[in-house]
Amino acid sequence: MYIRINNFKDIKNIILVSKIVHKILNYISFYIKPGISTGEIDNICYNKIVNYYKAYPASLGYMNYPKSICTSINDVVCHGIPRYNEFLKNGDIINIDISICKNNYYSDASKMYLVGNVNSESINLCRVTKNSIFKSLKYIKPGNKINLIGSSIQNYVEKFGYSVVREYCGHGIGKKLHEDPIILHYKNNYEFTFKKYMIFTIEPMINIGSHRTKVMNDGWTVKTIDKSLSAQYEYTILVTENGYKILK
Ligand code: MF3
Ligand code: CO
Question: Among 60, 68, 79, 201, which is best to mutate for testing ligand 1, by the most ligand atoms less than 8 A from CB?
Answer without folding.
Answer: 79
